[in-house]
Amino acid sequence: MNGRLERELIAEEKMMAKLNSLPSIFTEFYNTLAIDKTYTTLNNYINHNVDFMNYVTKNKPNNKFYKNVNAAKINEYMRSIRRKNINGTTVRIGDDICAARWTSLRAFFQFLKEFDYIVENPMEKTNRPKINTEHRVTYLKREEINRVINEIKTNSAESKRSRDLCLVSLALSTGLRVSAITQINIDDIDFVNHTISVVEKGNKVRAINFGENLAQLIKQCIEDREIYFPNAESNALFLSQWKRRMTTQAVRDLVAKYTKDIQGKHITPH
């Protein structure tokens, strides 16, 4: 099965289960946007608006919670999410996170106005939070990259060694997003032209070039895949120990495992 389609079907199943437990207005909202929005965007829109509903109704959801919402209530909610208690400590939430919440609410109330569920859109009297947060960029130096590669070669299980080397090397050499890497199928790889067809953010498909060193790692990964993960149902390049396509969380766990000894840096696939 195509990696993108496989991922979409799993995401759709999870979303339907979530929507079945929510007021029906969210299903209508989802169906309206599902044609041209990614699952990640849709999931965020639903989660953010459910959180807003719970705030407005004091955790007593109903299908018409939006009827008496005005700009003042939205501003009150936006103020309430600017701080969060984590392990007894109050922390400031990033401006970009608050702005994303506002965008989700705007999409929902635009839907309500367009389909005549409300007469006036209260979001039109609110402002998107300004983004002043500065994010520090964490990167690996060459010697740290070598340590990660050596860690894989030394401490990984034999059945996963070529897979992990290939995955990490592919991420480092191409800068692909985790979601794009996990969706790669064997059929997406062209060893003649040294290209990989990948699906990136916004479901855009493009060809990524790779060199001879990476080509050898990919070939070894495929060879070992047949040895250690035979008869896998998925055509994914990177398989989990259960012979299924690796998830983005599995890749995050993998990166955390091999970078745990790098001091002073929080390393993520991104």
Helicity level? 40-55%
Assign an overall shape: elongated
Main structural class: mainly alpha
N-to-C order of helices and strands: HHHHEEHHHHEEEHH
The neighbouring-strand order within the major sheet is 3-4-5
Number of strand elements: 5
Task: Please provide a written account of the structure.
- By secondary structure, the protein is mainly alpha-helical.
- β3 and β4 form a beta hairpin.
- The mean pLDDT is 86.
- The chain has ten helices and five strands.
- A three-stranded antiparallel sheet has the order 3-4-5. Strands 1-2 form a two-stranded antiparallel ribbon.
- It has helices at residues 3-19, 24-33, 39-57, 71-80, 95-114, 142-155, 158-174, 178-182, 212-228, 248-259, and strands spanning 83-86, 89-92, 189-190, 195-200, 204-209.
